[in-house]
Specification:
heterodimer; A: alpha/beta; 45% helix; 16% strand; B: 326 residues; Rossmann fold; 3 domains; 12 helices
Chain lengths: 141, 326
């Protein structure tokens, strides 16, 4: 049986969600593994959200925000960038593979880039295989 | 019976995977111990009284009124006693950081049992073990079998093993808070709802901290306390030193900070925070004074051990709980 990864995506309301919407209205095809959660800003994505996603069975998490300098709230995406790098260091210590968490910038006009990114990230997570966090937590809790 | 004819409370104190500091914090009531014994009989307390496990097993269910359980659950003995005391106790209190969220022993969740044993019995600098002997749970001696507890792969907090009524955090909890809680039980005051954290505030350490704080919290380089000359009055975070204050419940009287050491987070998270480390990580990261991935990486690199720093007292109680097992 082939592995069908579960991917949680946090998309900012102003750029990336609109970009994803554009991909949809333009009838572009992309992998169906992604579960999109709309947030007002990538700066709203708390580390807790990401940890909870993994604990509850996500195989990969992707955060999409406005390009640097374009944030609707001026610097929310910078805050997200800073959290992302610290979080990656924490996940490495916890034994999670580097590629499971990703941060990318998608503007409202980048529907095509969005579709390609989702395909590429889905492929990357499929290569990595199922995330073991859920099993680890269940086995010992 | 106490002097006023009311039946005395039956009190027990037990240690799981603990250092003994919590039991000492109970002893630190000093002369108030006389007030305690006036109102309560200590029926089980391994550090101070010679009462055997079989005596506890012989007690009827619900016989003990209050048990202060300190220490995490790390082996089969801790687990057995946690379950036994739950059965024999009306109010089970997770006393101290280890039973609250896993505490310092919980840092073993960064390793597996094999890794812990390898380090302790083979690799550590002070170990000489040419025959490579490791403890076995059962030893067959000619006179009969000898048993020691089974060491688990994983450290758990008390609530991950049994149902807990209250949590009294701290490493160790401030003795004054214990006395307050004890007097509340003795005087028959209305107890808070089950599952509450008692003997602590609902606001963070920063709320009590008297150091000067400004909005200018931008950090170019994280420093260890030894790397700075502390002026004794500016917020530690503004001086570049990681202080767990923002994500830690107040109630200890900010003793570490008053002693010019940054908060390490032993009181656990404020209410409604599921994961103290995640909140701290979130707060600290936004203070990084850089906007490009390369610069951010460089500043993040100055934090040596984010997981150990942000989860020093709470790894087993956190969302991810432990290092992923391959």
């Amino acid at each position: 049986m082939s592995f069908n990864p579960k991917i949680v995506a946090f998309l900012c309301n102003w750029c990336s969600y609109t970009g994803a919407d554009l991909a949809g209205t333009s009838r572009m095809k992309y992998a169906p593994n992604i579960r999109i959660i709309r947030v007002m800003c990538s700066g709203r994505v708390e580390p807790t959200f990401i940890m909870k996603s993994f604990r509850e069975g996500a195989d990969g998490v992707i955060i999409l925000g406005c390009h640097p300098g374009d944030c609707h709230y001026h610097e929310g995406n910078y805050k997200c960038l800073r959290r992302y790098h610290l979080l990656k260091k924490y996940f490495k210590q916890m034994g999670l593979e580097d590629g499971r968490l990703r941060l990318e910038w998608i503007s409202a006009s980048e529907g095509k880039q969005f579709a390609e990114l989702v395909d590429e990230f889905t492929h990357q997570i499929t290569e990595l295989g199922p995330c073991r966090i859920k099993n680890t937590v269940e086995t010992f809790a | 019976m106490s002097e006023n004819g009311k039946p005395k409370l039956k009190l027990a104190v037990y240690w799981g995977a603990a250092c003994g500091g919590c039991c000492v914090s109970v002893l630190d009531v000093h002369e108030k111990l006389f007030t305690v014994v006036e109102h309560a009989d200590l029926v089980f307390w391994p550090i101070a009284l010679d009462i055997k496990y079989k005596d506890v097993e012989a007690m009827p269910d619900g016989h003990i009124d209050v048990t202060l359980f300190n220490g995490a659950v790390r082996n089969s003995e801790n687990e057995h006693l946690a379950k036994l005391l739950r059965q024999k106790t009306k109010i089970l209190v997770a006393y101290g950081s280890c039973s609250h969220m896993g505490g310092i022993p919980g840092l073993a969740n960064f390793s597996s049992k094999e890794e812990v044993f390898r380090r302790a019995y083979f690799d550590s600098e002070s170990t000489i073990n040419p025959e490579r002997i490791v403890p076995q749970p059962v030893y067959h001696a000619p006179e009969g079998d000898l048993e020691i507890p089974v060491f688990y792969n994983d450290v758990r907090s008390l609530e991950q093993v049994v149902d807990v009524d209250y949590y009294l955090p701290g490493c160790p909890p401030q003795t004054e808070r214990l006395v307050e809680v004890f007097l509340a039980i003795v005087t028959g005051a209305t107890l808070p709802p089950k599952g509450s954290v008692i003997g602590a505030l609902s606001k963070s350490q920063c709320d009590e901290c008297k150091r000067k704080k400004s909005d200018n919290k931008l950090i170019k380089e994280f420093k260890r306390p030894v790397d700075i000359i502390d002026d004794g009055e500016t917020c530690f975070l503004e001086q570049g030193v990681i202080c767990m204050g923002p994500a830690t419940r107040g109630g200890c009287g900010v003793r570490c900070i008053e002693g010019n050491a940054p908060c390490r987070g032993c009181y656990g998270p404020p209410p409604d925070v599921p994961d103290p480390g995640a909140k701290m990580l979130s707060a600290i990261a936004t203070m990084i004074d850089a906007n490009t991935p390369e610069e951010v990486e460089k500043i993040v690199d100055t934090i040596d051990d984010p997981a150990g720093t942000f989860y020093r007292f709470s790894l087993p109680g956190s969302i991810l709980r432990r290092k992923v097992i391959v």
